[in-house]
Amino acid sequence: MHIIFDVLHLYYLPQYLPVAKELTQRGCSIEFVFYHSTHDTVIKEVIATEALNAHWVNGQQEATNLYLEKQADWVVLANSYPHLDQVHQVSKTVQLGHGIGPKSSYYKKSDTPTTVRFVEGAYRTQRFQEMYPDDTFIDVGFAKLDPIINGENVGFDLGSLGLDPNKPTIAYAPTFYPSSLELFPKHWPASFADYNILIKPHYFSVSKPKYSKHKKLLEHWATFDNVYLAKVSDYCLTRFLSSADILISDASSALFEFAALNKPVIWCDFLKLRWGYRGVFSYRFKRRMDEDYGEYASIAAHAAKYRDVKSLVDSHVANPEQLAHVRLSLSEKLAGKLDGKASLRIADYLLSH
């Protein structure tokens, strides 16, 4: 069987690789399609490190032309795709999302249906089926977490990063919008001198010119001795999830992925909103978030302001079992079955259809 993975953004890879590995072991021919960007050099290094059979394109129309030429059995996509009608002339398609966050776009990505969409858990599968009754949704779980659940050594060697392995480790993983990043003080790492800090910003915060303020702050924080700032080549969030004792985040998928591993999370409720999302326009923010946003909120300790963060971190590192019962009760709803076999279920479906 011939399967192609569409890598529009590098951060799609951590969801793809466990599945590609399983399919390769079963004798499938696997290819990856990457899109030229400002980070071509980094992506080429990743391709070499992972030994990927890769092709390059300059946009989605060029990718479509490649898919029409290749005529693979399946083309795997992480997001909506504008040329599905063309691709479906020669291949079946999959939507395999890269995150499980609280944004409404998670559901809207199915407005244009792929042949099948793989979903995390029975609740979301049922909700999709009610929204799109004529389309196909299969509950498989969340493949990105398989390597951690299966005990693979995917974390960092903290010492090699210049950090102290004897200190507890914080991961700070803000999303790009709406984000808490610009509301963290310029010198905040100094207040957390007793912790290692792994900062994993969203790819857009370091790659898109409109978020240049994010990049400037991030580079300043990286100058502190207890901080490691992710490089563009650190595309794999699972390394941060595996290495950290506690996560600080906002409306990010990382928050739910970390909580699904039953580790404590501090959820920053203070967000830098554009003027068009404030005041009388606050409905735009609410529309951007999923209807379950409020229920999901109980999975973490909440910091209303930055000044609340330090005491919450201290408390939950000292007593990580706080909120464990909530994390465990919501993990199935958020990520589906956490048995390390999501990739196997995906491979089973693709090979049998």
UniProtKB/TrEMBL annotation:
<dbReference type="InterPro" id="IPR043148">
    <property type="entry name" value="TagF_C"/>
</dbReference>
<dbReference type="GO" id="GO:0047355">
    <property type="term" value="F:CDP-glycerol glycerophosphotransferase activity"/>
</dbReference>
<keyword id="KW-0808">Transferase</keyword>
<dbReference type="GO" id="GO:0016020">
    <property type="term" value="C:membrane"/>
</dbReference>
<protein>
    <submittedName>
        <fullName>CDP-glycerol--poly(Glycerophosphate) glycerophosphotransferase</fullName>
    </submittedName>
</protein>
<dbReference type="Pfam" id="PF04464">
    <property type="entry name" value="Glyphos_transf"/>
</dbReference>
<dbReference type="InterPro" id="IPR007554">
    <property type="entry name" value="Glycerophosphate_synth"/>
</dbReference>
